[in-house]
Amino acid sequence: MRIDVRKGDITKVEADCIVNAANSLGIMGGGVAGALRRAGGDEIDREARAKAPIPVGEAVATTAGRLNARYVIHAPTMERPAMPSSPEKIRAATRAALRVAEECGCRSVAIPGMGTGVGGVSPHDAARAMVSALREFADSPVIEQVILMDIGDAMVDAWRDALGETEA
Known about the structure:
It holds the Pfam family Macro. This protein has 168 residues and is an alpha/beta fold.
């Protein structure tokens, strides 16, 4: 599995699935969730809410609407909107998202910074939790590429540090 770290708008990425750092209620209000809903369409939000509640540590796939993906995978890092998250919840959400991506046959998975917005986890701690979960799937027979994508330098730099990369 190849891991690519990119700075940019995840709503514009081309991948088999895009992960949404969700809440257990499936409400796509602000942050990345709101951006995915605005770019992809309200049907993503309606389907996510219909599949709720989604416990932290589990994930569900929905349509991707107008996004350049087949699925949006909703992996809660918090129980309710705007609740604090933790590195443990981020690790569990990342694992759950990758499990569902495998079940859906996704070869490429785009993942934003998880739990770093309203969840309040530092990019450094979130990156370490996410990379830890990614390493558990390094030998995935399905997932070939993970794109870690965020609009912020702090998250991009934190992923690079966690992966042991240096900027060229």
